[in-house]
Amino acid sequence: MSSPALARPRPVHRAADLLAAYLPGSFYFSSGRGSLLADGVHTTVQAPHGQRARAAADALIAADLAGVEEPLVVGALGFRPDAEASLVVPAVVRRAGVPERGGRASALDGSWSITPKPEPEVYAGSVRRALELIDADELSKVVLARCLELTAGAPVEVPALLARLVAADPAAHVFAADVSAPGDPAPRTLVGASPELLVSRHGSTVVANPLAGSLPRVADEAENRRRIDALLASAKDRAEHAHVAAQVADVLGGFCRDLVVPEEPTVLGTPTMWHLSTRITGQIADPAVSALALAEALHPTPAVCGVPVERARDTIAELEPEDRGYYSGLIGWTDLSGDGEWVVTIRSAEVCDRTVRLFAGAGVVAGSDPAAELAETSAKFRTLLRALGLEGAA
């Protein structure tokens, strides 16, 4: 009687090795749960808004039957329902642990020109217009974003930019995905370091961590403690945050049992910002509901759009001169069992040859101040600008 074949051990990779192996065209994703690098395309997943989770599930089953080892669907979805989407089953996926702290990355060299779109005073005027709509009871909240378009003297080194984002905050959700579309003059990459988990599913456990209500982080720790206390005490910021947490809890309540929603927010810190944060957990009621299905149901939350959603989305289209593209959409992965992790594509940029387009937004509610919202967007730009060596440019 022959002995049974031994199971082939899974290859062991270091997080630093995956990051070093990244090349434009790959899909990279790291978070507090680990990191992955995906290469090649086994299947492109194409489906209209609202049907992508079903199409992804079908593609995963087909890939499994075709012999793809532990297949995943990876990619990104844009902000609007009719926006671009980039979802694929990659040919090869490598996994590793969480990136180590203290990593180093080389500097990005070169000269830059920077064009704000719109000009800061125009953005402040849009905030004032949004406040008029709120005063007229047409809106409770709307998130307005602005864009910086940066042009370098030479093509931007995306691997170096990605490595600098990981080194700056290994605990963040750091990502890079090819989002090239017909007509692009060169390959286009979505890259960023998001603090906001839209939703994850691991086994039966579902987690969402909406953020809303923010203040810039500074170098002085005593001032940071004051800002944390100010955020927790701010009626305006707590009301803005409550809109988001309530909507996320309401949506997840339709899919989960034993939903736990903390009564009070906490404060989450990144290298550049402080955010009011609520970590919502539950147990999935139907194992057939994947992480991507949950993400589709949740998007867009009031953290990136507003209340009510349709009126806020129309206001964004009216008042923002630049189409958001993938900014404030979602990026992540889902596997054959339905597990996965999807994050909101904030603190992100789209890189194409010598051009970098980055966005930052602020939530406008009753009591918002246009100058303060403008300053908040400037602070949020710092994550990408710092990685580009341009922190003072916001």
UniProtKB/TrEMBL annotation:
Record's catalysed reaction(s): chorismate = isochorismate
Chorismate-utilising enzyme C-terminal domain mapped to chain residues: 121-380
Sorted UniProt keywords: Isomerase
Pfam families per the UniProt record, alphabetical: Chorismate_bind
GO terms assigned for molecular function: isochorismate synthase activity
Catalytic class of the enzyme: isomerase
Gene Ontology biological process terms, A to Z: salicylic acid biosynthetic process
E.C. numbers: 5.4.4.2
Family recorded in the similarity comment: Belongs to the isochorismate synthase family.
Record-given protein name: isochorismate synthase
Protein species of origin: Amycolatopsis albispora
